[in-house]
UniProtKB/TrEMBL annotation:
Keyword Nucleotide-binding: no
Taxonomic source organism: Pygocentrus nattereri
A Pfam family annotated for this UniProt entry: FAM180
Segment forming the signal sequence: 1-21
Keywords linked to the UniProt accession: Signal
Listed name of the protein: Protein FAM180A
InterPro entries hit by this protein: FAM180
Amino acid sequence: METTVLMILSLVLCHLSISAALHWRKALYPSAFRVKRGTPTLLNPSIQRSVEDANLLYEALWSGLYVDRGEGVLHVADEELASLRQLQPLEVVCEDILPRTLSDIRRLCHQLEQRQGHLSREDFERTVLTMVYTAEKLAQATPGHQKELWEDAFVQLYKAIKRDLRAE
C-alpha cells in the first residue's frame, strides 16, 4: 500500500516538474515558428542582426508607424523606407507574428509577468513593436471601457520592457 502511494506521489511530482519546465520554455510569440503560405521563408524572423539594422529600425520607428484600419497591421509610414529590403523582416513580424487582438495582447502581458530572466533579442523587439501597436490602437480607441483596457495593456507592456532592461 505504501509503495503504491509513494509511486503515485513520485509520478505526480515528476509530471509537475516536467510541466513546469515546459511552461518556462513556452514561446511568447508562437506564430514566429510557423511559416505561413505566401510569407518569405523566414522562420523566427528578427529585424536587428547588426548595429546598422538597429539604426534602421530606430529610423523606421522615428518616421512613424501606423495601424491600417482595414487589416489592423502595423506599417511604416515612410514609403521609401518601407520598401527597403532590410526592413522585410519587420513587415513579416508586423503582419504574421505580433498579436493584434486585445485578448492576445493581454495574454502576452500575463506571460511576460510570469517570465523570469531576460527576454531574447527577438522577444524584446517584438514586445517593443507590440507596445507601439498597442499605442496606435489606444490612440484610435473611443473613450470608455475598451480604451481603459488598451491603456492597461500598454502600461503592462511598458513595465515588462522596463523590468527586462533592469534585470541583471
